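Table S2 (continued). Query chain:
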Amino acid sequence: MQNIISSWFVQGMIKATHDMWLKGWDERNGGNVSLRLLDSDVEPYLSEFNTKPHHIALTQDVSALAGQYFIVTGSGKFFRNIILDPADNLAVVRVDEQGKGYYIEWGLINGGVATSELAAHLQSHIVRMQKTDGKDRVVMHCHATNLIALTYVLPLDSKVFTHELWQMSTECLVVFPEGIGILPWLVPGKDEIGYATAEKMKSHSLVLWAFHGVFGSGATLDEAFGLIDTAEKSAEILVKVMAMGGRKQGITKDEFKLLAERFDVIPMDGVL
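Corresponding output:
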């Protein structure tokens, strides 16, 4: 008999969250991750689900996700502890039939609820499902150090941020050709930030919350992690370049066009 701890999705969450903590992106209980599961993913483990799952109400309508399963990090849970006790720090949840709440089907064995940013996650999942024809299944939020640092010195403008990040690493245009969305500071865990993030996710798989952190979406945990990792590496280079007096040369507009042609991507309009 299979055990849910050994499932690909629990093991995947353990690896992703531990890698994020090792990167220094998720201090204490900072950050959260959600992965949309298919019925076929959870079917082998239904016998391990709670017989009377606890129901948690939501303040937003997520009826577009009615009946969908997600594995998510728990509210107030430390990323560094997930690898030690996944059943206490993670949860498999199911959105109820009306889209007005969710059931805790597995996990959080010592009590608790899903991440406080669940509102932002679910609204973004709805948008990315529609945008990618169901391909995107992961939403990942963390406090990537250098990306946050740049929000204190660069104009909070998507085109400016995107251009600067593209300049620092050749692969950035290829990995996120649609650029990075930027939001002003908003109170975390509230409906407003969830709706605002989802709106940006209509045109960007990567959204930066000023003075707070970054949201990334992808088809897999590796893809979402890699997206944030690529942007954060570019931000780190930019921080160092700025500390050395600023950029003296870089990739030209014509060279960016050749790069886009080579990898068959369409750059965000107005950046080049």
